[in-house]
Design brief:
2 domains
Length: about 150
């Protein structure tokens, strides 16, 4: 193990030679490939699998319908449509990124609704970021003028 690592490390120094510089490409490829593979495994277990699990929800939940039947309310009625709308939105957004088929006819409308949902999501995320920054700015102003300078 130590000898292999030492050999790879020494082979990297062949970069400084005119005639043996090509040797340094092999250990560099091993290092980059190893860390790229580790990063893919880390991403898959940390982000990808969690997102797929969060998307695999039942389209209709009998418990939601049963709750609405026992206690009718507007929010209970709207909760019945939450999972079907999420599933349709997920399919339309994924279809927008499916470039193997040209988006014509009815498929065009599905792709356009996916684009619309993406723009709404990105806009909401951007607005949330801006409002957070403004809230932090107001908090600093409050500290400066009220607590530190005692203006108010």
């Amino acid at each position: 193990m130590v000898a292999d690592t030492l050999g790879v490390g020494l082979a990297l120094f062949s970069r400084f030679s005119q005639s043996y510089g090509w040797i340094s490409r092999w250990p560099l490829a091993v290092i980059i490939g190893t860390y790229a593979g580790l990063a893919v495994i880390g991403f898959a277990s940390g982000d990808l699998i969690l997102q797929v699990q969060a998307s695999l929800i039942p389209v209709f939940e009998p418990a939601t319908v049963k709750t609405f039947a026992s206690e009718p309310s507007v929010t209970g009625f709207l909760n019945i449509f939450t999972n079907p709308l999420f599933t349709l939105g997920l399919i339309s957004v994924l279809f927008y990124f499916f470039f193997s088929v040209e988006h014509k006819g009815g498929l065009k409308h599905i792709a356009l609704s996916g684009t619309t949902l993406l723009m709404i999501g990105f806009g909401a995320g951007y607005g949330y970021t801006v409002m957070t920054r403004i809230a932090l700015l107001f908090d600093r102003f409050y500290f400066l003028f009220v607590e530190w300078l005692k203006v108010a």
